[in-house]
Design goal:
With about 625 residues, the chain is α+β, with helices and mostly antiparallel strands. About 30% of the residues lie in helices and about 20% in strands. It has 14 helices and 26 strands. Helix 11 (about 425-435) links the parallel strand 18 and strand 19 (about 440-445).
């Protein structure tokens, strides 16, 4: 093990309460030294089982499973806890809510309040809604109320393909400060060379020469190389494994930012437009950093489960089979994708299932560190074979979290067409998971029931051979997966109350759905909250909102041309909205879902600017 560096803070990230169940609690944290980590829980004798992964000379990721020695933890009540390094108690004042002597977690069992959100881009100009969530949770705890017991994050917890220039410089400072281990054959040079890469990294990403494109492709005739990575913001795309590690730390921890020398966050090139963009983003990032103590405290006090969407790895990840082919054909492209997925496994996946299935990657990961460098050739094969990113939580209602990225239903006739979000085998597994439950919370990163006018626009772009331009990633874009999913919802043995939580789209809405010709009366809620720190252009979403009401109103014949015409979809406006508008809300937010006996009772948006909106659950 490496020696400690006394100038570094001991705890770099966390503690983060991850999967919490009556028989065990999974907690993650990062330290700058190798240490024995144990926990105490108020009122219980517990055992701590620690798994430590060395990510750098001064960076250790700990995943700790805490189990009671007798019986189970009591559910749905706040439990205080303490942290010990080598049996020495740590001060946790910054993690405690006012008036409390320790941070607390709740074992969710009978769900009554759940937080949900997605899409957190550090340099987006909107406010970070996790700060609002922390403030609200503090209010609940100070009033002696347990408040929300579970936070579900449904994608884009990081934006690996859309990194601010200032963030990229901070990432490379942190790599050096913590001595993060680098990949073999790493072409990264000193910080001066990173300056040259700022806003130019899309030129370093692999491309397919235009000669290799199909003659049916527009790029063949325009003689334009076909980029493997299709993000519109790839100018500072993360590439190397240590960059992903540093980004996760900077996105979730205020402590590591104290190691960053702000006077070295400068743009040295002469391009005035890029210089202005650099400092505009840096200004927003500084505000983001001021809110990180709140987000750190939030994660220390509520069980948090996370699922990836595309930006956790890269935009349009596995959107079409053709996209997948381009990535697989190039070792550099594949390496970048694997780096994103591997970092997700470390900081999100291990805690989602408390290492029940995800632990299978531990041994090959540890074996990949050879003389202080990462050699991932063997691990990559294991990573590709691993298929258990999805998970469930045994609560009431049952929580079912879908992987809509790595089990795609590819279009075999045309690889350029959008793939279905889940293949037949996974959909059959979902069917078995849903049957014979009274109520279920289903987490699908993209909405199942989206906005019809927007889906129509996406379909038009797809017909023109441009599915990547408008992210044609909706459930209805693939005939097979759409039909199978709707058939599942119409079954007589599926839940009477299904609450679908989704993100991805950067706006929020509330739809209720019932089958027109179903065999039993069930109710489906589509609750979309996006983004935590991101927004859709407000004028454009207002226009699309009105178009949807005009062209796809309750009596519009266009409804019969949609794939879900057998499902009656009702849109719910905000409480107090004039003229029943708007249905679509573009204002950074995290949502609070209140449940009564497993049924939806209230749906609120807690906005980053401190305001609160509520959707009316009554039909018009």
């Amino acid at each position: 093990m490496s020696d400690c560096k006394k100038t570094l803070p001991m705890m770099l990230l966390g503690p983060m309460i991850r999967r919490a169940e009556p028989h065990q609690v999974c907690i993650q944290l990062v330290t700058s030294c190798a240490t024995q980590v144990t926990f105490s829980v108020s009122g219980y004798d517990v055992h701590s089982e620690q798994t430590t992964l060395e990510l750098g000379k001064y960076c250790y990721l700990h995943t700790v499973i805490v189990t009671p020695l007798q019986g189970d933890f009591i559910a749905d009540q706040a439990l205080g806890y303490g942290v010990y390094f080598d049996e020495k108690a740590q001060r946790l004042d910054e993690f405690c809510y006012g008036g409390l002597s320790s941070p607390q977690f709740i074992i969710p069992k009978q769900l009554s309040k759940v937080l949900h959100g997605s899409c957190r881009n550090p340099h987006h100009s909107s406010k970070d809604s996790l700060v609002m969530a922390d403030t609200q949770l503090e209010g609940f705890r100070q009033q002696g109320q347990s408040g929300p017991s579970l936070l579900l994050m449904s994608g884009d917890q990081i934006y690996a393909d859309d990194v601010a220039g200032a963030m990229l410089l901070a990432i490379h400072q942190l790599i050096d400060k913590l001595g993060l281990y680098k990949e073999t054959l790493n072409s990264l040079g000193p910080l001066e060379e990173i300056q040259e890469q700022l806003f130019n990294r899309e030129h370093l990403l692999p491309k397919t020469p235009w000669q290799a494109c199909s003659k049916r492709s527009l790029r063949y005739w325009t003689k334009t190389d076909d980029a493997h990575f299709t993000s519109m913001h790839a100018c500072n795309h993360l590439m190397h494994f240590e960059e992903f590690i540093a980004y996760y730390l900077l996105a979730f921890s205020p402590v590591v930012w104290t190691l960053i020398e702000a006077d070295k966050i400068r743009y040295k090139a002469q391009d005035n437009a890029k210089r202005q963009k650099f400092y505009d983003e840096w200004l927003v990032l500084q505000e983001f950093i001021t809110g990180l103590p709140n987000t750190q405290r939030l994660f220390a006090n509520i069980s948090t489960l996370m699922m990836f969407d595309d930006h956790d790895v890269t935009d349009d990840w596995n959107l079409t089979a053709q996209w997948e082919q381009a990535i697989a054909s190039n070792s550099v492209s594949s390496r970048i994708i694997h780096n994103g997925l591997l970092s997700y496994w470390l900081f999100q996946g291990l805690g989602n299932d408390a290492m029940v299935h995800s632990k299978t990657l531990l041994a090959p990961f540890e074996a990949s560190l050879v003389e202080g460098q990462w050699l991932f050739s063997t691990l990559d094969k294991e990573l590709q074979r691993f298929g258990r990113w999805h998970f469930c939580l045994d609560t009431f209602p049952k929580v079912v979290v879908l992987d809509t990225r790595t089990h795609r239903w590819r279009n075999e006739q045309n690889f350029a067409e959008p793939s279905g979000l889940m293949d037949w085998e996974m959909l059959m597994g979902l069917q078995e998971t849903l049957v014979n439950h009274e109520a279920v919370i289903l987490v699908s990163p993209p909405p199942v029931f989206g906005v019809k006018s927007i889906e129509a626009i996406q379909a038009a772009f797809n017909m023109c051979g441009q599915p990547l331009m408008v992210d044609v990633e909706n459930w209805m874009a693939h005939e097979g997966s759409a039909k199978k999913l709707l058939d599942i919802f119409k079954r007589a043995d599926t839940p009477k109350e299904t609450i679908i939580l989704s993100g991805d789209v950067h706006y929020s809405f509330c739809f209720s759905v019932q089958s027109r010709f179903g065999r039993h009366h069930n109710r489906i809620w589509q609750l979309t909250a996006s983004g935590i720190k991101n927004e859709f252009p407000k004028k454009l979403i207002a226009c699309l909102d009105k178009l949807d009401s005009i062209f796809y109103g309750p009596w519009s014949p266009l409804n019969f041309f949609t794939k879900r015409w057998q499902m009656e979809v009702n849109k719910h406006p905000l409480e107090g909205a004039t003229n029943k508008q708007p249905y679509l809300v573009s204002n950074s937010a995290i949502s609070l879902i209140r449940l009564e006996q497993g049924k939806l009772a209230q749906y609120e948006l807690w906005h980053g600017d401190g305001s609160i909106s509520e959707f009316s659950l009554e039909l018009e």
